[in-house]
Structures are given as structure tokens and as C-alpha cells.
Amino acid sequence: MTRRIALCAGETSGDQLGAGLIEALRERFPDARFAGIGGDAMRAAGMDTWFDANELAVMGLAEVLAHLPRLLKLRKAFRQRVLEWKPDVFIGIDAPDFNLGVERWLKQRGVRTVHDVSPSVWAWRENRARKIGESADRVLCLFPMEPPIYARHGVDAAFIGHPLADAIALQPDRAGARAALGESGDAPLLALLPGSRLGEIRRMLPDFAEAARRLAAEVPGLRVLVPAANAQCRAAIDAILGDAPMFRVLDGQAQRIMIASDAVLLASGTAALEAMLCKRPMVVGHRIAPLTYRIVRLFGMLKSAHVSLPNVLAGEELIPELLQDDCTPGNLHAALLRWFRDDDAVATLQPRFLAIHQTLRRDASARAADAVAQLLRQP
Questions:
Q1: Residues 316 and 178 in one domain
Q2: Within this chain, do residues 86 and 227 fall inside the same structural domain, yes or no?
Q3: What domain range is 251 assigned to?
């Protein structure tokens, strides 16, 4: 029996998760067909992409409002095409603002649904767990604190671990990463990751770059490596940085750059988790659109004491978080300087990062595929 599996992933991180899931599902269902929304990684894994994942890469309430007509039109066309394709299961990967609506619509019409990557119910309104259960027959959770929350609301959820924890070595080869990048073994290196969305880059990179310039004045010979997620991101980065010799912009290689670095300056998100798994000290700096921020503050929407995953998973502040008005070049520079001057502080981080890494290392793609296969075998 040939299984039809429809998937939808938005942006780079979801595309990578989807590719790993497709490969694991193919081991269980060799003749399966895969179709939906994805990016280069999912296409390489054998999925027929009806729309590209970049079409969903919109961040923040204000930004979504600006793109809402286009997104609604895309969602209507996509969910109808999925229904007509008659899949055995639909898997929404992250992108909850888009995917949960599609899942609910399909579930009401008899399609089995899975939501891969639980929204952050630990941070934003726990009662959303019940609503998510109305959309998804099964929720796949990347972090161990999430399934108990769903259980309180009667929703089927499973902790599968995080694919990045499987992919990154417990003890990354820093010297090898530097050699592969052509960087000196002892030169001070700063990794600069302003985000993979154009809006994030334009909002964050000017202040990140200024913080790096101030740091270079106190750290002789500092090199700053900036990975660009794609050609559009590279053009935006180049336009902001110009031809300053201290900055080196590379196509991709974000993980290698982080492993090679002495410290990382990044926008909050999956990159913070990746830097932790690479065992690198970091500073998280982030700002969202002012309207989005006012809405979040007005309604008390943020429940977690921390926003970056290293701190959330540790249950305490291991690394600095400089958010909104605190995210200034001066504050970023001061926080970064500590990681270049305080070797003991860096050494203290390492066992904490390693312990979290081991908790998340669960062969996530295989566990996700098992959860989907189990659902497919149910009456």
C-alpha cells in the first residue's frame, strides 16, 4: 500500500526538520509519496513541493497583518489541494499560525493530522494546548517539559527530542571547524547571527555590527564571521556591513562558524539552541516590531521568565538575554566582552550545556516517524 503523506514546513529550521522526518518515514514506508510546502532540504529528501517554505517566513503580529491577505489566499489553495490529494496523514511542521488552521480544517474533514514541533505552550498561555489538540491528533514535542502540559488538557503528545541534538557532536571539533573555514587556530573569533529573515536582519544587524566594532577595539585581532542563510539574506547583510575588513560574510555554514567561534551574538530562536549544542558562550539580543511588543506587554502574553532556549531548559539564566530596549550596542558589547575575558565563566557553562544536550539527544527523526507510523496503523 502506497502511503500519501502531506507536509507543510515554514522557513529554514522547519525545512531541515521536515527533511529528517521524510527520510525516517521512508525507512518505514519505502513506497510513500510526499507532497506539500517545503524548502530545498525537503525537496532533496524527495518531496514534491507545491509551494516554497519561504512564502510562510513571516515573523511577529505586525508583520503577519501586513501579509495576511496573501497568507489567507495561500492557505485556502493549499488545504484544498491537500484534501483533493487524499493523504493518509497531514504533518504540519512548526509555523503554528499557518499550520494549526490547516490541520483543524483537514481534521474536520476526516484527515489524520500531526503537529510536529509544539508551539511554546510553556511560555505563551498554557490553555492553547487544548486548542492545539482540536487541530492535531498527535503533537510532537522537542522538549521534555511540554508533554505534561498537553496531558493536563487531554491531548496526545510525545517528547521526541531535538534533531539538532542528534546531529551535533557532544564534543564539537573546534580546531577542525576553524581549519575548514580557513581561520587561524588562535585568532579571536566572534560569530554574528542576526537571523534568517530579512526583517530580522534589517532590524538587528546594524546594532550587532556596532557591538562587534566596539568589541574589536578591546579584543586585538578580532575576526567576525557572519553566515547568510540564502542569497537574499546575503544581499541584505552586505548592504549593511559594506566592505569592512573585520567582517567576513559566508554562504551558510552557521553551525561550523559557531563551533569555530569564541563567542556568539545572535537573535533569539533556534540559533540559541544550536549555539548551546555547539558548547559556545553566547549573548542573545532581540527586538520585535514595536506594535507586536506593545501587544505582548499589554496582554501579559509572555509567561516564561526567559526567552532563549538555553535559559528555559536550564531553568535559570546561563547566558545574557538583552531584549527590546535593552538590546543596544553598548549592552551587547559589554555582555560579549565577558566571554572573551573570563575563562572561568566560559568553563562553567560547558557541563551545563553538555547535560542539556544529552537530555535532548533522542534520535528525534526516528521517534517522530514512529509516532506518525503508530497513528497510521490505528483504525
A1: yes
A2: no
A3: 167-360
d(CA 257, CA 312) in angstroms, rounded, equals: 24
The DSSP call for residue 89 is E
Q: Is the pLDDT of residue 295 over 80?
A: no
Same domain, 49 and 180: no
CATH number at residue 350: 3.40.50.2000
Cβ of 345: how many Cβ atoms within 10 Å? 11
The verdict on pTM exceeding 0.85 is: no
207, 213, 218, 220: CA torsion to nearest 10: 140
The rounded distance, in Å, linking the Cα atoms of 297 and 341 is 35
pLDDT at residue number 291: 63
pLDDT tens, position by position, 89-125:
999 998 888 899 999 999 999 999 999 999 888 767 7
pLDDT band for 307, please (50, 70, 90 cuts): confident
Same domain flag for 269 and 346: yes
Q: Are 137 and 209 within one domain?
A: no
- Grid cell 530580522 — which residue? 200
pLDDT at 62: 54
Rounded to whole angstroms, the Cα distance separating 189 from 140 reads 36
Domain count, the chain: 2
Supply the DSSP symbol for 302. Answer: -
Rounded Cα–Cα distance for residues 98 and 95 (Å): 6
Rg (CA), the chain: 21
The predicted structure's pLDDT at residue 238: 95
Residue 68 reports pLDDT greater than 90: no
Torsion angle of C-alpha atoms 14, 15, 17, 23, degrees rounded to 10: 160
Burial-class residue 169 by CB neighbours within 10 Å (0-12, 13-18, 19+): exposed
* Cβ proximity of 60 and 288 under 8 Å: yes
Q: Are 113 and 106 in contact (CB under 8 A)?
A: yes
